[in-house]
Structures are given as structure tokens and as C-alpha cells.
Design goal:
It is a single chain. The chain has about 110 residues and is an alpha+beta fold. It has a domain of about 70 residues: Alpha-Beta Plaits (2-Layer Sandwich). The chain contains three helices and five strands; from the N terminus they run H-E-H-E-E-H-E-E. It has a five-stranded antiparallel sheet with strand order 2-3-1-4-5. The longest helix has 15 residues. One of its GO terms (biological process) is ribosome biogenesis. Belongs to the SDO1/SBDS family. Pfam families: SBDS_C, SBDS_domain_II.
Length: about 110
């Protein structure tokens, strides 16, 4: 906070100040929100079509498996979770499932923190 010359204001809420500080720090430093690791299990007939709709919301696809069902393990931005969940439920009419494997997947340098 010293680098961006930010001083704490007691009249503002802590959440509001934290959001302001994070925004300013993003400009100076490489700060990125931690990704969530998810597993989708989708019916094969709807899976290919749904995968194309999900692609813009997915950061990294780690694995795909086409057996009796389409299974995808991927990383997403946490802000997209609700949109992805709604899309899967609506498009598969409750036949698809979404599982959270990891809430925060963070990599820093050569070390991986989980």
C-alpha cells in the first residue's frame, strides 16, 4: 500500500477500501484472482454443443474424457461459477452435473499452492 501511496480512511467501509486498493495494486503488480477447479459431467449428445457455449467462460481445460458421458476438468474464474452452473442445468435439463474440485488453485513460480 505504501508503493501506491494509499492511506486508510476511517469513514469508508473496509470492503470498499480493500476493493480500491486491489484495483490500484493490479495496475502496479501482477495480481490475479485464484481459479476454481471444476469437473463437468455432461450427456454426450448435449455435451459437444454445451462445450462450445462454455468455452468462453473456461480459463484452462485440463482434461476431457468422452466415454458414456463427457467429462471435463477445467479451471475457471470464480465469478463465472453461477453462470456456468445455470447454463449446465438449463441446457441438460438436470442430467448434467457440476462438481467443485478445488476452490482456489494458485501457482506461483515453480511452487504450486493448493
Amino acid at each position: 500500500m505504501k508503493d501506491i501511496h494509499y492511506s486508510v480512511n476511517t469513514n469508508k467501509s473496509t470492503k470498499q477500501q480493500a476493493l480500491e486498493v486491489i484495483k490500484q495494486l493490479k495496475e502496479k503488480m501482477k495480481i490475479e484472482r485464484a481459479h476454481m477447479r471444476l469437473r463437468f459431467i455432461l450427456p454426450v449428445n448435449e455435451g459437444k454443443k454445451l462445450k462450445e457455449k462454455l468455452k468462453p467462460l473456461i480459463k484452462v481445460i485440463e482434461s476431457e474424457d468422452y466415454n458414456q458421458q463427457l467429462e471435463i476438468v477445467c479451471l475457471i474464474d470464480p465469478g463465472c461459477f453461477r453462470e456456468i452452473d445455470d447454463l449446465i442445468q438449463k441446457e441438460t435439463k438436470g442430467k448434467g452435473s457440476l462438481e467443485v474440485l478445488n476452490l482456489k488453485d494458485v501457482e506461483e513460480g515453480d511452487e504450486k499452492f493448493e
